[in-house]
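Quick one, tokens below. Sequence please?
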């Protein structure tokens, strides 16, 4: 996470530490894994006390150990890195590449809350910014889903972009029923919410006759591959329109 790119320069460093770990744990959740620990690369700064406080909070919340890492100092934007290590709870480990024609597409919850949280933080409105600052990795949900899904990943860069990644990896087309996607924003901002990202919901496919082990919403279906990896209500997205966050 880089200052000015992934977090605001005046952001509470306790929240930065939480998000750094939580977003990595979300990758484990998408593999149905349980955390074994993290390795941390830390840029020393005047706010280290707050960073350490947030780090302790997130490690305790998800029963995750700090295994080691490195510290550095220097000029320029602060940069933090983490590598999460986990243990698979099911074999084979879920991948992005297993979606099958006829499967249904599901998501575990609404999108858009992180977008509103970022705007509240940026604009200093005092509104709730917790969805952006302190995301919740869905570890238990990922472990419950792992034996059933054909493909799974977390939504970090935008629902549409991440859906296209499953489609490309699986060599299929995914048709999203856009009105089926629950959003945490006003209806006139639905298109933004589908593309903004940072919500860390789990996005997955599985056979239509599967009994879901958790609460999730069906938002589409898997079709044979077409020229477009995703369809929105049966129609390809407009050419040149961003599907999500581009690094």
């Amino acid at each position: 996470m880089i200052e000015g790119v992934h977090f605001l320069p005046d952001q509470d460093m306790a929240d930065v530490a939480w998000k750094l770990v939580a977003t990595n744990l979300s990758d484990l959740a998408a593999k149905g894994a349980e955390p074994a620990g993290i390795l941390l690369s830390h840029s020393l700064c005047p706010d280290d006390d707050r960073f350490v406080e947030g780090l302790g909070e997130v490690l305790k919340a998800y029963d995750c150990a700090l295994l080691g890492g490195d510290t550095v100092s220097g000029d320029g934007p602060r940069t933090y890195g983490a590598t999460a290590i986990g243990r698979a709870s099911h074999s084979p480990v879920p991948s992005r590449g297993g979606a099958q024609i006829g499967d249904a597409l599901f998501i575990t919850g609404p999108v858009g809350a992180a977008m509103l949280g970022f705007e509240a933080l940026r604009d200093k409105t005092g509104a709730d910014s917790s969805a952006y600052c302190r995301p919740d990795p869905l570890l238990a949900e990922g472990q419950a889903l792992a034996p059933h899904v054909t493909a799974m990943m977390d939504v970090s860069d935008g629902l549409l972009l991440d859906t296209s990644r499953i489609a490309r990896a699986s060599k299929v087309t995914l048709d999203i029923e856009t009105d089926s996607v629950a959003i945490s924003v006003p209806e006139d901002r639905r298109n933004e919410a589908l593309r903004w990202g940072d919500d860390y919901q789990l996005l997955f496919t599985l056979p239509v006759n599967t009994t879901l082990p958790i609460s999730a919403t069906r938002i589409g279906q898997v079709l044979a591959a077409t020229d477009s990896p995703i369809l929105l209500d049966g129609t390809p997205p407009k050419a040149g329109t961003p599907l999500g966050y581009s690094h």
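The first helix runs from residue 13 to 29. The two ends are 12 Å apart (CA to CA).
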